[in-house]
Amino acid sequence: MKDFNHKHLIGIKDLSAEDINLVFETADNFKEVINRPIKKVPTLRDTTIANIFFENSTRTRVSFELAEKRLSADVVNFSSSSSSVSKGETLIDTVKNILSMKVDMVVMRHPSPGACVFLSKHIDANIINAGDGTHEHPTQALLDAFSIREKLGDVKGKKIAIVGDITHSRVAISNIYCLKKLGAKVKLCGPPTLIPKHIESLGVEVDYNLDNVVKWADVVNMLRIQMERQDIAYFPSLREYSMQYGLTQERVERSGKELIIMHPGPINRGVEITSEVADSKNAIILNQVENGVAIRMAVLYLLAGDK
């Protein structure tokens, strides 16, 4: 088996196509495990993992916790809202206190871009980035690409559209890096105010017309409007956004093809995607959730091999 020569998983930017494919091959094996009657393996027995979330999360936190328990790790969950952080404790003090309890790996979500890089330079444990500000969310990109590979057989040469709030989305940036490394064609779509200038320098195209993009694409990944990160109004109203950039059944049918529809969640039904589309046979949103556990098991396993 090839080596995964990384101590941390901070971002997709740091990985090669070979690294990504190694994660996928490992996840294939773990997917078999989680579909067995007995879903646990003793792989990370005696490994202690701390899940440190400075931002709210449901899917990512539960997915990581499930992956850790499937691998028989000891799990410590930490939420900043119920901790000394609310009393003014710094990030480095918080983590040092947790590490003094002999924690081997840290899974961290933080509102500040670069928080995981900062942490990796100050502590000895393996760090997995579960999302840092608008920077990256590597395991989400891995599970998205893994889900495309599972559905279409390969990612190379496929046309992937990412639609919505690109400016505030760490998922979009990680997806762009991951899909480009695997040889996919990527097109972004959304209001001009929500697509960063010079994003084409990452090797992607931009089209502001959703109907054109849907006709072009093999896969459409719909992103949530991140109202909590927006400090100004980037578009007139949610209703107008939905009319211009919401994915409806009519739009899917006009494409004239079997489109694959994805969403990293949580879904704003009726805004970026209608319930009819989200619950349709074209949508692989629940497959993404299932694959998230297998991908995170693979990442934990490969990083633990660094020890």
Brief summary of the model shown:
With 307 residues, the chain is α/β, with parallel strands linked by helices. The protein has 11 helices and 9 strands. Helix content is 38%, strand content 14%.
Strand content: 5-15%
Per CATH, the architecture of the largest domain is 3-Layer(aba) Sandwich
| Global outline | globular
Task: Kindly report the CATH topology of the largest domain.
Answer: Rossmann fold
State the CATH superfamily name of the largest domain. Aspartate/ornithine carbamoyltransferase
Secondary structure elements and pairings:
Elements (H helix, E strand, L loop, with lengths): L16 H18 L13 E6 L5 H12 L3 E6 L11 H9 L5 E6 L4 H6 L5 E7 L5 H15 L6 E5 L6 H12 L3 E5 L15 E2 L3 H7 L2 E4 L15 H8 L3 H6 L5 E3 L12 H4 L6 H20 L3
Parallel strand pairs: 1-2, 1-3, 3-4, 5-6, 5-8, 6-7, 8-9
Helix pairs in contact: 1-11, 2-11, 5-6, 5-11
Descriptive report:
The chain folds into two domains: 12-137 and 289-304, Aspartate/ornithine carbamoyltransferase (Rossmann fold, 3-Layer(aba) Sandwich); 138-288, Rossmann fold (3-Layer(aba) Sandwich), CATH 3.40.50. It is 38% helix and 14% strand. It contains eleven helices and nine strands. The chain has helices at residues 17-34, 59-70, 91-99, 115-120, 138-152, 170-181, 210-216, 238-245, 249-254, 275-278, 285-304, and strands spanning 48-53, 74-79, 105-110, 126-132, 159-163, 185-189, 205-206, 219-222, 260-262. A five-stranded parallel beta sheet has the order 7-6-5-8-9, with helices on both faces. Helix 4 links the parallel strand 3 and strand 4. Helix 2 packs across helix 11 (285-304), helix 5 (138-152) packs across helix 6 and helix 5 crosses helix 11 (285-304). The two termini are 16 Å apart. The model is unreliable at 228-232 (pLDDT under 50).
